[in-house]
Amino acid sequence: MNFTIITHVIHYKDDSLLLGYGPYIREMNIWLKHVDNVTIVAPFSKEKGGNIDLAYQHSKISFNEIPALAFNRPLRILKSMLNLPLIIWKIFMAMQNSDHIHLRCPGNVGLISCFVQVFFPNKIKTAKYAGNWDPKSKQPWTYNLQKYILNNTFLTRNMQVLVYGEWENQSKNIKSFFTATYSDYEKGVIQKRNLNLGAEFVFVGSLVTGKNPMYALKLINGLVKKETKVMLNIFGEGPERNNIENYIQENKLEDLVFLHGNQNQDIIKDAYKRSHFVILPSKSEGWPKAVAEGMFWSNVPLSTNVSCISYMLDKGKRGILLEMNLEKDLVRIENLLLDQTNYIKIGKLAAEWSQNYTTEVFETEIEKLIIK
């Protein structure tokens, strides 16, 4: 089988290895266990990969480079429009020579792929929609267009679209799915340090306004002002870092808030094991890996009610759904910090739910999609 991946993820070379964004590569390596040949259509950079990037694990990979697409500045728009015919042609040819077409959405490359796949109604196809599938959510029109094409059984045939959460009035193309990071052998209840000795919080994600790390900081600062023993570890990089550093200095939080940058999976796993709470006050999500990963290690999640998060938290039984009202959210967190018994109960429920979604279960479900 020739399995073709079409994605916007930027790829790098390290000697003979082909690398990309770690969480994406880690997932794709599970898919690739079940295919003979792999064709990848994606942008390429001559820069060195970062410390969160990983390599594909497959002996027969053919890489077809396409230019990266960007429509946020006039010069980039012009360049992207000039490159569009070449990109469409490369995607078309890759699909024509494929036995199984796999699209990664949403994104500019995903949007083009959605149009091109229409010409291959008889090919076996899957699409991973990693964004928020909620039909009622406000999203860019390009995202909504991708969702419309993928959901439409006339335009998109022989396709299974993997989405996060369960939504009403969806076509037979749509399949509720999940992702996984940890294995069956890692399952178990983690004993946490007593909250009276200090509560540890962790934020894992890009330092961008959409992930709202500043709100996590404000929560911690609010707890500090109430003389609560807390600390926050932040993992990730992004344009918000300067604002975060300034806020830490202005509020004298240097001994309580720590920025660790991008770190590998093992370091982050150790942080989850130590922590009591995982915070993600994000404006939009697909399947929030940080929340699912934190819950696996008995962290109580503090997250906004977007995408499938209400489902993950069982409407608040497995964590706290943030209202994004600082005073109200602080009261609920403080009440939980004062109730060790309830904290342990919620953390146990969180772990029990998350530990249903291991890499072994994920691989079994992926195999069903590939081998038909």
Please give a structural write-up.
The chain has 372 residues and is an alpha/beta fold. 37% of the residues lie in helices and 21% in strands. Strands 6-4-1-7-8-9-10 form a seven-stranded parallel β-sheet, with helices on one face. The chain has a six-stranded parallel β-sheet with strand order 13-12-11-14-15-16, with helices on both faces. Strand 12, helix 6 and strand 13 (257-261) form a beta-alpha-beta unit. Helix 5 (213-225) packs across helix 10 and helix 8 crosses helix 11 (340-354). The chain is globular, with a radius of gyration of 21 Å. The mean pLDDT is 94.
Briefly say what this structure is.
The chain has 372 residues and is α/β, with parallel strands linked by helices. The protein is built from twelve helices and 16 strands.
Oligomer description: single chain
What portion of residues is helical?
25-40%
Sheet/helix structural class: alpha/beta
**What's the β-strand tally?**
16
- For the largest sheet, list the strands in their spatial order: 6-4-1-7-8-9-10
- The total count of helices amounts to 12
Report strand %.
15-25%
Task: Show the helix and strand layout.
Blueprint lengths: L1 E5 L5 E3 L2 E5 H11 L4 E6 L10 E3 L5 E5 L8 H23 L3 E6 L2 H9 L7 E6 L11 H11 L7 E6 L9 E4 L21 E6 L8 H13 L4 E6 L5 H10 L6 E5 L3 H10 L2 E4 L8 H8 L3 E5 L4 H4 L7 E3 L3 H12 L2 H15 L4 H12 L2
Parallel strand pairs: 1-4, 1-7, 4-6, 7-8, 8-9, 9-10, 11-12, 11-14, 12-13, 14-15, 15-16
Antiparallel strand pairs: 2-3, 3-5
Main attributes of the structure:
six-stranded parallel beta sheet, 372 residues, 12 helices, seven-stranded parallel beta sheet, alpha/beta, 37% helix
